[in-house]
Amino acid sequence: MSAVMPSEPAAAGAAMRRTKSVSERLHYLWYLSRRSPLTLVGAAIILLVLIMIIAAPVIAPFNPDKVSLTARLLPPSTAHWFGTDEVGRDLFSRVIYGARASCGAAFMIVLISMSVGVLIGCFSGVVGGRVDTAIMRLMDVVLALPALVLAMALAAALGPSLFNSMLAVAIVRIPAYVRLARGQTLSLREQVFVKASRTFGASPFYILRWHILPNAMSPIIVQATLDLGGVVLIAAALSFIGLGAQPPTSEWGALVSSGRSYMLDQWWYATFPGLAILITAMGCNLVGDGIRDMLDPRLRGR
């Protein structure tokens, strides 16, 4: 018992310190959010989209693929909040389910491009020399081309489908992460703790895993958050021109494409999916700006 008793106050003190640390961090985040109300607006939008994705079967009043020819092109009403399409499907349900395809695709695109780009960029920065030069010249060639045009060309070459459009956009977005990760790596590899680790015989993989990546992630996370909004727009654009999701998939860009033929008389068909794209992209950009301000010490004192 005498060996156990002294550890109990220490454990209680450690628990109190952890609780205080979490409380201080939450209070700091709330303080920064109050200074930037638009960040709260963006977070609320992202939260709403996440609820739509997770609880789509509960929120949607109808099966998004259920056809009802007697309810074709009905305007918004209490029965059909967003109206119906050309075969009587409920547009509110299709927009809700469309969040899964559009936002799920955008998240996967950013995850793939970020993962591949960070690995290539860190490897290029650590190795250096001709390998670094060759990689960066290739990235410069890709960045010199308009992103949307290159994504359209790749998607057309691969064939029209949601998966191929995701792959095309991910390839286009890789160079931005390569350059960002390489720049962070070049800066961090000259730090004292990295030089000390190299002096003690640490391998490049060890230095990359334990020293470079943890310290380089803050700007990469900000870039990924900001990228989400742009990726939602590009993926929707590919679906709009027929290179992305194909009917009858509930995807926002495809819904806008289907509704453009009825825009003059049945305005609701293309309007509500278009608003979903616009609001989601805006929410991602607002959250990205807020995270950047929180992580950038130069902006905290403003």
Describe the structure.
- Helix content is 75%, strand content 0%.
- It starts with 6 loop residues before the first helix and ends with a helix.
- It is globular and about 75 Å long.
- It has one domain (38-300): Orthogonal Bundle (MetI-like fold).
- α8 packs across α9 (204-240).
- It has 302 residues and is mostly helical.
How does the SSE layout of this entry go?
Blueprint: H1 7-35, H2 37-54, H3 56-59, H4 91-127, H5 129-144, H6 147-158, H7 162-188, H8 192-199, H9 204-240, H10 252-259, H11 268-295, H12 297-300
Helix pairs in contact: 2-4, 2-11, 4-5, 4-7, 4-9, 4-11, 5-7, 6-7, 7-9, 8-9, 9-10, 9-11, 10-11
How many angstroms separate the termini?
Answer: 54 Å
Number of helices: 12
Q: Let me know the average pLDDT.
A: 86
Shape: globular
Q: Any idea of the CATH class?
A: Mainly Alpha
Q: What's the structural domain tally?
A: 1
- Give helix % range: over 70%
Uncertain stretches of 5 or more adjacent residues: 1-6
The major pleated sheet works out as:
none
Q: From N to C, what is the helix and strand string?
A: HHHHHHHHHHHH
Instruction: Give the full name of the CATH homologous superfamily.
Output: MetI-like
How many strands appear in the DSSP assignment? 0
Question: Radius of gyration from the CA trace?
Answer: 24 Å
Task: Assess the beta-strand content as a share of residues.
Answer: under 5%
CATH architecture: Orthogonal Bundle
Protein structure class: mainly alpha
Q: Quote the CATH topology.
A: MetI-like fold
What is the gist of this entry?
By secondary structure, this protein is mostly helical. It contains 12 helices and no strands.
